[in-house]
Amino acid sequence: MGDELLEEFWIAEGYEKPKEVMMPTNKTQRKIWELMEYPDSSLSARIIAFISIAVIALSIISFCWETVPSDSEDKQINMTTGELIDEMEEKHYSPFFWIELMCILWFTIELILRFISCPCKVSFATSILNIIDFVAIAPFFVNFFL
């Protein structure tokens, strides 16, 4: 009866009962899931969350900086043949390409680790935020491999 009274009091005061969170049963998966999803669970999780935010900021800054006209480079010429280097090959010389590559690799590893360690694959795959994550990184790989 004490728990019921306490729960009624919480509801009357506007507190919501915390939802029970599904956690992976495998010890390794649970640890990875906590590292990736719960920054308050440990110092390591906080560091990973900080790195994720820093990589997001770096990606945004790099994307914006790449579009500044004064910093765009002229077409590169192969000095041996005198021919213009094609656009894709030229892009590989750009520091922005390498920054984007490192950021995309971080996002991909993070998404894969979260998927592998999640307690419910279906709810993970249908979550709108995870769909957005996938849609955000997929074009890079399509463009890179085609």
UniProtKB/TrEMBL annotation:
Domain Ion transport: 46-145
Pfam families attached to this UniProt entry: Ion_trans
Principal location class: membrane
Alphabetized GO MF terms: delayed rectifier potassium channel activity
Membrane topology value: Multi-pass membrane protein
GO BP terms, alphabetized: action potential
Transmembrane segments: 43-65, 96-116, 122-145
Tagged with keyword Iron: no
Keyword annotations from UniProtKB, A to Z: Ion channel, Ion transport, Membrane, Potassium, Potassium channel, Potassium transport, Transmembrane, Transmembrane helix, Transport, Voltage-gated channel
UniProt GO cellular component terms: voltage-gated potassium channel complex
Compartment(s) of residence: Membrane
Family matches, as InterPro entries: Ion_trans_dom (IPR005821), K_chnl_volt-dep_Kv1 (IPR003972), VG_K_chnl (IPR028325), Volt_channel_dom_sf (IPR027359)
Entry-linked PANTHER family: POTASSIUM VOLTAGE-GATED CHANNEL PROTEIN SHAKER, VOLTAGE-GATED POTASSIUM CHANNEL
UniProt name for this protein: Ion transport domain-containing protein
Species whose genome carries this gene: Caenorhabditis brenneri (Nematode worm)
